[in-house]
Protein 1
Amino acid sequence: MAPPPGSVVIAPRAEARVGQTEMVTIFSRDIFAVFLSRYADDTPITGATVEAGTDLQSAKLTETDPGVYSTRELLMSPGRNDMTITFTLGGVTHTQAIPLMMPAEAPEPAPPPPPAISTASPLSIVGAIVAVYALLSAAFLVARRGSPRAVATRLGARVWRA
Amino acid sequence: MAFHAVDMAVIGPPLLVGLLILASAAPLGLIIARRRGPFTSLALAQTASCGLTAGTMLWGAPNVLVIEVTGLVAVLACAGGLALLAQRARGPEVAAGAVFAMAASLQLVLLAHAVDAAVQVDALLVGRVLTISPQLLVGTILLACAALMIWWLQETIRTPVVFHLLLAVVVFVAVQIAGLLVTLIVVTVPAAAASRAPLSWQPLIAFNIGVIGYALGLAAAAMLGTPAGPTIVCVTVPMAALAYQMIALTAPDGGARPIG
């Protein structure tokens, strides 16, 4: 049979809009990164001064690519981390609070359920299937003994016409 | 594409469950076919799926019982609403179609931020018929017995409310085992194909059309290594169309009750 579908896991992230600037924050592999772009056309914003922090720590972010500011100096704890992002652009400073949700320590993923392989012998399985089929067919045959009018009544024909 | 031998130990339990689902669905499907209203089952199946997704997001995946209750409450509420519409509205199928679209959209909105959204959508569409647990198998047996007994013994099935609630419960269980696609097909298509047969034979014929399509589809999936649910659908629909034509040719009057 085909293998079970896998799951897609993405890093914790949050986003906010500050004026005409869109901000996306992400924490992945010990790197905290902020993506700044113009809200209107998604153009990366370069040359900004970005600082990020929580109540206990703060760090200045370095622009590693156009519009991408990152640091390794921030540590995150499992659960909610209330981040404060301050960026200065064109002499104007903006401050935005962003909650970043970190996953709890994940337990080992449960293995996919195995096919319901029965331990009974193939012959007994076939016998059970034939028996159930015969029983259900017999039930329908017994129900058929009623007159067509009675069957039609069971099927609700009169009700739906009304 | 590689071919594999059919192992009864693998396809036996799913086939058994399929028989029970088909037996539960065949009489209900005939009522749906008579009403020409397949959107009702589609709306209920999608609402069940959406309710399970909402339950998972509200309570977390480990709380299986609460999730099941949430899904069941959602689908029963939807069934009650559809029953009211069937009695009062002029276009109940339009309403059922709208309910389906709304439930599907709500589910996509709920899954928008889920990291495993694609996996969840795949499971709900295609089902997990090959990984059915013994507990679910016992539950399906009880459900099939109850559905058949209600249909066979109780005249109350005639009332729209009872019909919709029964259909809701059958669809709710079937969606979790066989997925949305297979559920929709096994409820509506065999019954529609059997609708040209003599009236008293229709439930048995609908059941058997479904059984043949389901069994061949399951065997094909096992041999070809393809997903079980879509393969069953791909086999059942042409099988039902063929059966529909054969019944029309063999029936003395060309078919008692054409559906189209």
Protein 2
Amino acid sequence: MGKTLFDKIWDTHIVKALDDDMALLYIDQHYIHEVTSPQAFEGLRNKGLQVFRPEKNLATVDHNIPTVNQNKPIQDPQSLIQVQTLESNCEEFGIEYFGISHEKQGIVHVIGPELGKTQPGMTIVCGDSHTSTHGAFGTIAFGIGTTQVEQVLACQCLLLSKPKTMKIVVENNVSKAVSSKDIILYIISKLGMQGATGYFVEFAGTAIVNLSMEERMTITNMSIEMGARGGLMGVDSTTIDYLSKRVQLDALILKEWVELKSDETAIFDKVIVLDAHDIKPMVTVGTSPDSAISLDKRIGDSLYITPQSLEYTKFKKTDFITDLAIDYVFIGSCTNGRIEDLRKAAKIAKNKKKANNVTVWVVPGSKSVKKQAIKEGLDKIFLDAGFEFRDPGCSACLAMNDDKIPAGALCVSTSNRNFEGRQGAGAITILASPATAVASAITGKVSDPTKYLK
Amino acid sequence: MIITSNGIPLPFKNIDTDQIIPAAFLKLTTKEGYGKYLFYNWRYLEDEKLNYDFVLNQVIYKSAQILIVGNNFGCGSSREHAAWALADYGIKVIISTQVADIHKENAYNNGIIPIELSKNEVDKLMEMTENFPECEIIVDLNSQTVTALKINLKTSFKINSIKKDCLLNGLNETQFLMKYIPEIQTYETK
């Protein structure tokens, strides 16, 4: 019997199998940010411990930093303290740190791959649930809590029980109007937000294989939204092409990497097969990421509309989603804040104007994404369309900083969660692709991007 | 370790960690004092006036230590602040059909026992805590049992032996892991 990709990586990282189903698993790469790490460093100090392998850690600031005037001192005193705490912790424990004004700063899940730090076959963790993003590179990558952050700092290992494995196959190709965001929203709408709890999911099939690395990351990024411990994909020429532009690759490593795919005879605990022909541009209409429907549907067509979600959103079940007038558009986050996302957004925004009553924030995922966007003149397209083009950070995805959507306002967002209050107390979030977000910004209503993408 | 308390019913599925504690309260660099922000947007109205419609604000549930919740509790963000808020508030046990993976680890690491029971059992406990809010539930970690005399329910739950040991002995998992440093160093040389 063959092995799954997950098992191949898991098995080579077991330091020691403990009783029951627990294993001590070695972690190759640990990413750190300012919000979930201060208590972990404090824990080390309290226990008199050092960072075991500083070189396997990389820190940056993203969650709680402003996305305007990053060259000036941080105004929010609590944000300033969190950023300064991370900086001094990294200095004390010898960890590489990209501060707010560093040219390599950005959202952890954007800069890890961008810098070539995320590599096939690795185990990767971070105190952030969207660590699953890195699974697009054939890695076991998942989010952890702060106590576990402390453990990884202290011994580069975690005590873990082995999850079950699931394979989600998306057969055939999607149409030109369908993005990888639509694919993952469709998958989550089929499984439900607890559909993959307890599983590690491998994404496969023609529709997945034909995606670029950045598009693949949008898929693995949102695995957590169906409860999965993480998501991953096999290594292929797309993976290797992406990395060869960022790191020196030798023949030996390439030989190892090409093996990083599930064997044909591998058995998964669960297999789900979907058809790409069924996927259209998708948006969410409830307060959970599984409430996605295609844009030709009515709100009530979602299986995951609840009395609570209707009370919160004030939507009517009989309304068409395209009838909804919007107030904000947010383009960014670890889901859709990469250069290809900004290119897709700019392509539609070019020579157009946003609707008068809509505020549009474009927030690049990293300094490098911002620099590249400016080099390509995308910033100018956005500004001409009446969009704001900001500095990198997590921004309105979780609204920890000042980038909050006001109560009652409706935001079409390229981020990953539409929970109650996620983008600000009382704010209503509609998750969408960058193309749908820009199409909506132009019309002022939730809009299908298809006509712009032919 | 035995926890005897009435239960707090929260009969909603998929209660995410943004509801347990909104991101606005993740700005501290310490672990203490998050209890007052627990379920913030549900617990308070404008100007932090208590929302008496919300179960946590009803007198009968004030000192309860057991939370009875719908499926997939604690999904979403990995923020351990959610577990810190629950623990600081006084919650010692979560009973659900399923607790989300990351939150389950965070609960263990903060001395909270996440217990997964069958839907039928959780439904019965939910109904009891709603209709007879004063009725006690007895959670015995040693024997791994949950008992509710009022409804003649006695059932057992599964827990990994290492997690159980850490909870029973107040052991910190980090200290447990540090014992393996020699093995970890050997692994690294392979």
